[in-house]
Structures are given as C-alpha cells and as structure tokens.
Amino acid sequence: MRHFHLWTIGCQMNKAESWHLAGMLAAAGYAESPRLDDADLVVLNTCVVRQSAEDRIVGTLGLLEGIKRRRPAMRIAVTGCFAARDRTALLAKYPHVDLFFGSGEYAAFSEWLDGSQAQDAAGDSRARPCDEVEVRPPAPADDAEDASGVSMYVPIIQGCNNFCTYCIVPYTRGREVSRPPEDVEAEVRQLVSRGTKEVVLLGQNVDSYGHDLPGHPSLAGLLEQLQPLTGLLRIRFLTNHPKDMSPSLIETMARLGKVCEHVDLALQSGDDDILRAMGRGYTVQTFCRLVDDLRGGIPGIAISTDIIVGFPGETDSQFENTYELLERLRLDVVHVAAYSPRPGTAAARRLADSVSEEVKAERLHRIEVLQERVSAEINETYVSHPAEVLVLGRRKGRWFGRTRTDKLVFFDAEDELGGRLVSVHIAQASPWALQGQLVYNSPVTVRRNPSP
Ligand code: SF4
What is the DSSP string of 300-333? Predict the structure, then answer.
C-alpha cells in the first residue's frame, strides 16, 4: 500500500482543506503515515500570514529536498497560501516539488493524483502547476486527537475583499465567494446524519457571507436555516469583522438556542491611528460599542480577539493604548502576534518595518502576561458552577469538551461519552482550561450557560 503524509499549518480554513485532501487520498487507496520520511506522497498545506510560518515551510521544503535525493520516487505537492504565488517561479526555485496547487483546487489535485499514479507506472515524473478551483470540505473542528467528527468545520465563504494593509489573504485566497445556503444546509444535514453535533461555519470574514449571491442571504439567515435541524446541537462561526458585524446578527444569536455564546472578533490594535494605517475600517470607540452590544444582548458571551504588535510606526504610547484597552475590555482570549511584512501587501510596499524585533518581542510578552491574568480571572468565575459541555473526545485518558463559551473542559468518567452533552461541575480553572467532575443523572438539554 502507498502512504501519504499531510503537513498542515495555518488557519481553520487550511485544516478544513487538509481534512478534505486526506479523504481524497484515502479514496485513492493511500494510507496515512505519521512520518514525513516514510511517505510515498507528501502534501504540504501552507500559510504565509506570518514570516515565521513561511520560514517553517522553506525549512520543510529543504528537508524534503534531501529525502527526495535519497528516494526520487517520492512525490511532493504543495498547496495553501505559499502555492498561490507565481507557480512557474516556485517550480524553478523548488524543482523537487512535483505540484503546486492553490487552496481548494481539489479538481486539479485529483487529476494530478490520477495522472501521477499512471506516470509512476510508466516511470515518468514531471512537475507542473495547475489553476483550477472548486469544492469546499468539512473538517473536525478541534485540533487534538478528536477525529470523531463530533464538531466539524464547514467553510461558508472563501477569500476576503477587505485588503487590510498588512494582510496577504486577499492576494492568496482571492475575493469573497460564498456558498449558496442550500449547499451549506445539505452539507450540515449530511454531517449530522453521520453523527456530527456541532458545526463551525468558517470564513475569513463570515459577516460578509452572502453579499455575492442572488438575493443576498446573510449569516443571520443561514443560522435561522440551520437552527431547526434535528440532531444538530450547537452552531458556531468565525471570524467576525468589527466593521461588518450587524445588530441583526447579534439579535439572531441571542434568540437561537443552538448558536453558542462566543465570537471571534479581531481588534488588531487599540489605537485609532494604527487602525487607520491598517485599513481596518473602524475605531476604538465603535469596537467598544460592539462589545457592549454583544455583552448586553447575549449574557455570558465570550469574546476572543487578535492583536498585532509592532505595526510600522507603532509608538510606545500607541502600544499602551492597546494594552490599556485590553485591560479595560477583559476579553476571554487574545491571540497576539508580532508584525512581519508580507511581500505584496500595502504595508510592506509603503511602510518601513520600523519597530525593532526586540521591542516587538517585549510588547508581545506584555500582552501575553496581561491576558494570562485576565483569562485566569474570567475562568475562575466558572469554578463551583455546572457547565454544559459537548464531549469531543479523549486526551491522555481524560474526556475533554467545550462549553458553549468555548472553554476547554477536562473531566474523568468511565462511560462512553463522545458526542454527548453533559453537565460538568467545575472545580479548578487555569488561563487555558477548566477541570471538573461529571454530574451524573443531570439531563442536559440545549440551553444557555448561566452567566459566570
Ligand atoms: S479582514 Fe483583513 S485581516 Fe482579515 S482576512 Fe481580510 S484582509 Fe486579512
């Protein structure tokens, strides 16, 4: 039997696409290999949103070059944002790669797979690029050992029209393309029929969903459409854009019992001048008003966010504005990254990367320390209360799942609980997770967690 190894970095969209590629490879008769150097076919699914990710790709391609020298029959395919660049130039620079194909170009990958199997038989192995696009897949929505399909990613919109000045996504994934609501519903129905209990609707900007489709369906409308599906217990979505999140979406979230009390709302900076230079399209004041509306409309809602430190020209006082805003808003989770220029973006073309790496690292560390404290304090409020947990699987012998507010919960139990909604009495909290005891004989229905 032939073996494939799939190496994935990047966002949930990449994970969703890798899941689909793994399914295609299994259907083509390949078995998965955990080791890169044992595989007959290696697929790298890449991300170039940050320089550090790009460095890892280049390092892995170097490693593969050495392996391929020893085992010339091994095939290498590269997809994702790295492969969105000039493919003729990529093939010239990395001649040991057999195929570069863009995100979601499954038809092209499938055709190449068929052709390469035939070429293997004929002893011919030529590299070529491809340019087709189609198909969107689901994937398990938790990174860990949960491959059970209890929670699944469902992409609903690809690409982005926003062109934030630092971001490479509109160049690598193209403009927004939404899936028709009936297509999304059919996929969710199919997933539920196979045991899925939760879907996470994905998009670079889910709030833009539907504007490019006939009749302009909205994310709120899609949530209404999915809410009645029997067997589906929870619905989540990410990522939201503060300038596009509508009052009607908040009202719909508050009303629909299956829609979880959690949003991922990228702030990026707490300084208006930096937000303007980033091209984000909102101010600190409008972001704060949105947080107030969410917290007022949806009691107990958890809000996670993204922050970039060291954007070109960010002064000490502009950074302090971000720090103080985060301290004041007390969001549940903050993903923080240091700015790195991405070739081709407006910021990389027009603005000098003026903040030193040392200062970026110091600012990043300060936000991490602040957020560790804030997350610990928020999570502590769950202690001594029951929480409704959707059980996703086992990790190191313990059951784990998530609350409606997306808190990771660990607990012990003998019973088989995968895919069940259970009540867990929370006994301990850390900034990253909750620990508790299963409450036996406590039937859990689909309902909202009490406000912590
Ligand atoms: S909204 Fe901005 S940061 Fe997000 S994907 Fe689009 S361009 Fe990139």
Answer: T-EEEEEEEES-TT--HHHHHHHHHHHHHH--SE
Give the Å distance between the CA of 266 and the centre of ligand 1. Answer: 9
- The DSSP string of 406-418 is --EEEEE-SS--T
Q: In Å, how far are 163, 380, 435 from 431, measured between CA atoms?
A: 33, 8, 12
Question: What is the 162 CA–ligand 1 centroid distance (Å)?
Answer: 6
Asked whether 167 lines ligand 1 (CB < 6 A), one says: yes
**pTM score of the predicted model:** 0.83
Cα–Cα distance measured from residue 106 to residue 101, given in angstroms and rounded to the nearest whole number:
9
R_g (Cα) of the chain, nearest Å: 23
Pairing of strands 421-429, 434-438: antiparallel
- What structural domains does the chain harbor? 2-129 (3.40.50.2300), 139-379 (3.80.30.20), 386-438 (2.40.50)
Amino acid, res. 18: S
Ligand 1 lined by 170 (C-beta under 6 Å): yes
Distance in Å, CA 204 to ligand 1 centroid: 7
Question: Which residue from 205, 239, 264 has its CB within 8 A of the most atoms of ligand 1, so it is best to mutate?
Answer: 205
Beta bridge partners of 136: none
What is the bridge-based pairing of β-strands 398-403 and 386-395? antiparallel
Distances (CA, A) of 253 to 233, 256, 390, 449: 14, 6, 19, 14
- In tens, the pLDDT along 392-426 reads 999 888 999 999 999 999 999 988 999 999 999 99
CA 91 – CA 89 distance, rounded (Å): 5
Beta bridge partners of 112: none
Q: Which of 12, 103, 160, 172 to mutate to test the pocket of ligand 1 (most atoms within 8 A of CB)?
A: 160
Q: Give the model confidence (pLDDT) of 254-293 as tens digits.
A: 999 999 999 999 999 999 999 999 999 999 999 999 999 9
Nearest CA to ligand 1 atom 1: 162
Smallest CA separation from ligand 1 atom 8, residue: 167
